[in-house]
Amino acid sequence: MSSDTVAPEVPTGSEEGQGVPAALEALLAAGDRSAGAWATEWLAHNGLPDPTAEMWRYTPLDSIVAELGRTTTGDPTGEVEMADLDRLAGRHGSTRIVFVDGRYSSQLSDETGRSDSAGAGSATGPLPPGVRVGPLGAIASAEGAGGETTSDAATALLGTWAATTAESAGADDGFSVLNAAARNEAAVVSVPAGVAVGSPVHIVHLRTGSAEPSAATLSQPATILDIGAGASAQVIESHVSTGPGVTNAVTRVRVGPDAHLTHVRVQDEHAEAVHVGETVIDLQRGAHLESASLSIGAQVARNGLSVGLNGESAVAKLSGLSILSGSQRHDTVLSIDHDSTDCRSEQDFRSVVDDRARSSFCGHVRVAHGADGTDASQSNRNLLLSRTAQVDTRPWLEILADDVKCNHGATVGQLDDEALFYLRSRGVPVARATSMLVAAFVAEITERLEPESLRHAFDDAIRRLDPDVVLTTAAVRSDAADTEEAGS
Amino acid sequence: MLSIQNLTASVDDNEILRGIDLDIAPGEVHAIMGPNGSGKSTLSNVLAGREGYEVSGKALFDGADLLSMEPEERAAAGLFLAFQYPVEIPGVGNMYFLRTAVNAVRAGRGEPELSATEFLAEAKEKMAALDMDPAFLSRSVNAGFSGGEKKRNEVLQMSLLQPRLAILDETDSGLDIDALRVVAEGIEALRDGERSMLLITHYPRLLEYVRPDTVHVLQAGRIVREGGPELAHELEESGYGERPVDDTSAPRVSEPESGPDDSDARPQARSLL
Lengths: 488, 273
Prior knowledge:
The complex is a heterodimer of chains A (488) and B (273).
Chain A: H1 22-30, H2 37-46, H3 61-71, H4 82-89, E1 95-100, E2 103-104, E3 132-135, H5 136-142, H6 150-158, H7 174-181, E4 186-191, E5 201-207, E6 217-219, E7 222-227, E8 232-241, E9 245-255, E10 260-267, E11 274-283, E12 288-295, E13 300-309, E14 315-324, E15 329-338, E16 344-353, E17 358-367, E18 374-384, E19 390-399, E20 404-413, H8 417-425, H9 430-446, H10 453-465, H11 473-477, H12 480-487
Parallel strand pairs in A: 1-5, 4-7, 5-8, 6-9, 7-9, 8-10, 9-11, 10-12, 11-13, 12-14, 13-15, 14-16, 15-17, 16-18, 17-19, 18-20
Antiparallel strand pairs in A: 1-2, 3-4
Helix pairs in contact in A: 1-3, 2-7, 8-9, 9-10
Chain B: E1 2-11, E2 14-24, E3 29-33, H1 40-48, E4 54-61, E5 64-65, H2 71-77, E6 79-82, E7 89-93, H3 94-108, H4 116-129, E8 140-141, H5 147-161, E9 165-169, H6 177-189, E10 196-201, H7 205-209, E11 214-219, E12 222-227, H8 230-238
Parallel strand pairs in B: 3-10, 3-11, 6-9, 9-10
Antiparallel strand pairs in B: 1-2, 1-4, 4-5, 7-8, 11-12
């Protein structure tokens, strides 16, 4: 390489990075420094992620930092009516627990039938005995496993995997550490070995707006899902808000040997909100994960999903859907690590982008040395509904093993002109034909969602794209059940 | 019912139709035959309102200016095109599609919508006549259908939509002899003395089942011969031959290379779904 082509050295690592924005300093100063001493120290040293970092390159970090700065001036009201909760988050499954501004709300949450300290499970609750659903602190103290901070309690009760720690935090994990620095109650679903939880558990994290409408609030919810060996569960995690501000959410998941988890994450925040979410999932031998990430609300949203296939024959089926309009910016950032043999990962991520909105997808798949028998597939499909909509898609495969099956594909395009003309030639007006095709594109993701109530969230989102057309994804599919129904 | 006067159509400065004149009266069945690349499918596409053509001339449908209407307006007015290559639409159920189409056209005629139950009863009856399994209703539109199944689905749509003028673009192609008979009987059954049809075909065999009143031969974008049904037989004996094109100075339309006819002499559409 000749000398004149050498790029200037870009400083990497923790020393400088983004530095500590003034906004962050104010937040840390205002917070209780003792709540997470290591975290505040870590942040003072490392700051927020470097905007040039691979996993953050499409994310508008400057807008996020600016909004964080505004949050220091807005106190959340913490006031939520049950009707507002139902409208914002819906009710999916038979057990719903609710956290408002990072605090457990017993008024808004269902009775969980949690085992009491004597170990006798409530006979009337919908949850099997031994299943723990609720705020971490209460569960930990009931079991004598307290801790001064959320991280301590999580570590004491469940293990180090359940918390962001100084040891596990990487250079770009500033937002996760910021979350750890907040002294909030984590939502916990813990299922003992061999137990099948029959009906879905719905966790709602709600951020309330400020009493002062122009101000922004900050909420830093945490969620921990622990599925024991051979156990099975379905968890729906909703993030909603009633005003502008920042939600910085962290979810930690462990799926034990031969256990089965279905995890649906719904981001449907206030239209002016900023949402930063990070989900870290540890899959052990023979574990089976089905994950769906649904991103509808917020002005700026980043959905980070990191999955470790850490035991042989683990399976991760990941899907995601973003529906954006106006000037929304949504990023999906995946990191899939195949660290064991004979594991399988599937990704099916889609976006529908209208107006001046912008969507990005970055899918990093790493197959470690010796992870033979790996089967990894990645698909990212994007539908542009306007000339000013924008999509960035970046597959990123890093394959260090030999016996591997990997494939990936990405498409960015408009509606199929042929299909549109075919529908119109049969008398279907263009607006309706358009939404039929969009609904069909979306339905390939949403039709897998259970319970059915989840699918309606998308019908509403599609309607937002074109308010003149009232259409449901279920109707467009018009599956065999509909035909049967119509015939009876 | 349909009156076409000096209709021309071009794509990217290639003139594909070079002045078509054609009149179809109510109840009449006309056939257009011609070799590959003669403009047969372009004519049907232009009449149905596909975008991407530069069009001049006139096409009046019951006196209304067809060329200024949107495709869905043409359908509501009673025009139907059976596609040579029916489009697969994964994710849109066939039953939902058919019922939406029927109700859209009914709304255009000021008729009440059919309920799901009413629609299903009618669809099942018409499917039985076309020897179609009712299971097709619960599949996605044309997705994974065989060539013959797609053509039957086109004729099913025609029988449900009850158009006043049906254009059938090579509905006979790709069918074996039994399927051809079933499809042809389905078409013939819709002939009621009121409804007009324009059959576009490469081969005369369909015309043995659906006997046309008039046969037109299209070559290089012009109608070069017209006659009664006997003309189809004559063409079968002698072929289209190479008749000289009178305007030899005009650029010859390039033959499409991939398709069996001129249907792809139109802008390529990107397909995503």
